[in-house]
Amino acid sequence: MWDAPGLVAGVDEAGRGPLAGPVVAAAVILDDQRPIRGLADSKTLTAQQRERLHDQILAKALCCSVAQASVEEIDTHNILQATMLAMRRAVEGLRLKPAKVLVDGNRLPTLDVLAEAIVKGDARIKAISAASILAKVYRDRLCEQLHVEFPHYGFAGHKGYGTPEHLEALQRHGACVHHRRSFSPVAAALARTMADAAALAEAAMPVPVVIATVETVHLELRAER
User: Fold this and answer.
1) Rounded distance, CA 12 to CA 136, Å?
2) Residue 209 has pLDDT above 70, yes or no
3) Same domain, yes or no: 138 and 169
4) Is 136 found in the same domain as 198?
5) Whole-angstrom Cα distance, residue 135 to residue 34?
6) Quick one: average pLDDT of 31-50?
7) Which pTM does this prediction carry?
8) What digits encode the pLDDT tens for the residues 139-158?
9) For residue 46, is it within any domain?
10) Which residues touch 31 (CB under 8 Å, ≥6 apart)?
11) Does 209 reside within a domain?
12) What is the mean pLDDT of residues 173-180?
């Protein structure tokens, strides 16, 4: 009730848990004059519902922004800090500056505007619901592109999460450039790959040949007189 009047942006992320791909965040400022029916936590919606709402959000919201933090940033800073970084980028990418930012969860990125963390905000605040949908659809589409590049991992199906199918592919093929090396299943796969490479290199080393030198000694025997 003490907030200054002005625009309110909702912020949410997608992709904190997967073993591969960037973490994605979205920020949305909705237009009260153009309401969108059916907004909800993206995890409770079907893929078809998310796609439909995604297009409506882009068409009706005052402004939207989607940003990400790369795999390299995740491995360098850890997934929590990378998520905060993606959220901050999403807010900074908004065409209109909000008076307040509502963030799903219990942590806030570093922002230069008033912000509030709301636990389960993606199910309670429509602007956060919209942000969760944009982030989810954007990342799912990105995983489908990764699937074209590396089809043997099954990214289009599991979206990078550690499903049995994904873990089996990791064990069979090792990690690719899009895997998060700081996540334990990926680190284990990399360790196996290095161990296998070392074993192959050792097996391929030439066996040293030992050449024995035989010295011939000539003895001259003389009879005693």
Assistant:
1) 9
2) no
3) no
4) no
5) 21
6) 96
7) 0.85
8) 999 999 999 999 999 999 99
9) yes
10) 60, 61, 62
11) no
12) 95
Q: Is residue 20 part of a domain?
A: yes
Helix-, strand-, coil-residue percentages of the chain, each rounded to 5: 45, 15, 40
Distance CA 160, CA 64 (A): 25
**Residue listed under structure tokens 């990764």:** 146
Q: Do residues 30 and 113 share a domain? A: yes
Between helix 47-60 and helix 126-149 the angle, nearest 10°, is 120
Q: Which 8-state DSSP code applies to residue 177? A: T
Where b means 16+ CB within 10 Å and e means fewer, 86-110 reads bbbbbbeebeeebebbbbbbeeebe
79 and 110 fall within a common domain? yes
CA distances (Å), origin 221, targets 170, 215, 216, 225: 76, 19, 16, 13
| pLDDT above 70: residue 27 | yes
Task: State the total domains in the chain.
Answer: 2
- Domain match, 183 and 87 both: no
* In contact, 57 and 64? CB cutoff 8 Å: yes
Interval 74-119: pLDDT, tens: 999 999 999 999 999 999 999 999 999 999 999 999 999 999 999 9
Q: Which residues lie across from 10 on neighbouring strands?
A: 28, 102
| Domain span holding position 119 | 8-149
Residue 190: pLDDT over 70: yes
